[in-house]
Amino acid sequence: MQRYIGLFLLIGMFSCKTKSVVVTPVVPVDTTNVATAKMIAQYYTKITPKFNSISIKSNVKYADERMSQNVNAEIRILKDQKIMVLVRVLGITMAKAYITPDKVQYYEKIGGKYFDGNFEVLSRWLGTDLDFQKIQKLLIGEALDTLNSQTGNVKSDMGFYKIETDSNQGVQKQFYIDSNDLLLKKELIFQTEKDRMLQILYPTFATHEKAFLPENVLIEASQGTSKTNIEMEYKSVTFDEELTFPYQVPNGYEPIIISKTE
User: Fold this and answer.
1) Which residues, in sequence order, are CB contacts of 145 under 8 Å at separation 6+?
2) Helix, strand, or coil (residue 9)
3) Which of 39, 134, 193, 237 is least surrounded, with the fewest CB atoms within 10 Å of its CB?
């Protein structure tokens, strides 16, 4: 599902080829609508982070039909401004991504490749709408879409608030918010006609003074019989330290060229 293993580890969790869509909301009756609006307001009140910056050290496990790989990753976030992900093997930095709202830069030592572009180019290549906020939300355990009382049909489902949307392009989305702690536990994006599915799980959260953050992020992307799994385990988290975001492509690396037809 991805051409470069390092790039997949960093941002390939979005590459299950689900196109950007305009959601056609299923409008509930008034009483349900009021309850839904209240629940969603409580959700955002609870999960809105209070930090300016965050540094996360994690273990990452990647597996598909051809290979499996375990690496360490350091994630640095200056909220709403910058994200840097450093992938290390045996303490050696093997790949680095530097992401801002306007630009995506990346290089990996294996193969000596680098990418320098924007989200428009990257979204076309991956086949799905991608932006800075989606990456930030995924890393800190927030719903990828902005939820509101008109997002879709809300049901009670086995201890969860299940928010389900449908679209006229066949892309369905489901968000599962725990009815007890109001934290997101699962997201599903799927296209039944094309047998494509992306599932994001947040089994447990840790309570920090400045945020509720996932302890694990489990991602499964599938198309037909092809499956890719990514498991991220957050080992340590620090808030509001002064972070640096150094990025420079080593000499001699070759650019990853994405043509308009890809």
Assistant:
1) 23, 151, 165, 173, 175
2) helix
3) 193
- Taking the model in full, what pTM does it have? 0.83
CA 173 to the chain's CA centroid? 14
Query: Closest Cα to residue 195, out of 219, 168, 165, 225?
Result: 225
Strand ranges (DSSP E) for 215-259? 216-223, 226-239, 254-255
Tell me how far apart the alpha carbons of residues 227 and 173 are, in angstroms, rounded to a whole number: 19
Question: What six digits make up the tokens of 244?
Answer: 């640096």
Which amino acid, residue 256?
I
Task: Work out the pLDDT band at 6, boundaries 50, 70, 90.
Answer: very low
CATH class of 12-243: mainly beta
The residue extents of the domains of the chain are 12-243
CA distances from 12 to 126, 153, 221, 224, 239 (A): 8, 29, 9, 18, 26
Per-residue pLDDT tens over the stretch 110-168: 889 999 988 887 776 665 677 899 899 999 999 888 887 666 678 888 888 888 876 65
Give the pLDDT confidence score for residue 1 in this predicted structure.
35
Cβ(211)–Cβ(50) below 8 Å: yes
